[in-house]
Target: Ferric uptake regulation protein
Amino acid sequence: MTDATALLAQAERQCQLRGVRFTPIRRRVLEMIAATSGGLKAYELLDRLAVEHAAARPPTVYRALDFLIEQGLVHRIESLNAYVACPCPEHAHGFQLLICRHCGRVEELHLDDVNAQLSTRARELGFRVERQTIELLGSCDLCLAAPARDDKPATTETS
Ligand SMILES: [Zn+2]
Ligand SMILES: [Zn+2]
Model:
């Protein structure tokens, strides 16, 4: 993540506009996630917070994460049990994540028509969608260009 400071300032503004509280622990959790390139695993986050906050017990941290996810500031990567900061938290629609399984880089896409099609089809089948996660797992361009690390074929997952 390149600009954690700008991201935090934006999060702060957004919380103010919505009248929700951006507490120190919420801020710190977002800051840690934003400062990590690629997803930050839940246990890594807990370990790091425990070092600096005696009070950062898992329930507190998970509540902070729930808040950040609800506000669209953070996305959960289901397949890795990790979290990424959303680069554009004002987006209203769904998103898709491209995840490099070598370096952990995550790119966020906003192909609204993909989500719209899925929602429409689900509705046609009488299915009520409660959560939609689209994660594509593979190798990023940088890792593909790097000297061979391992050559297992990349997999694609949609859950
Ligand atoms: Zn997003
Ligand atoms: Zn990569």
User: Anything to note?
Assistant: Residues 75, 86, 88, 91, 95, 108 surround zinc ion (ligand 1) (CB under 6 Å). The CA atoms of residues 94 and 113 lie 9 Å apart.
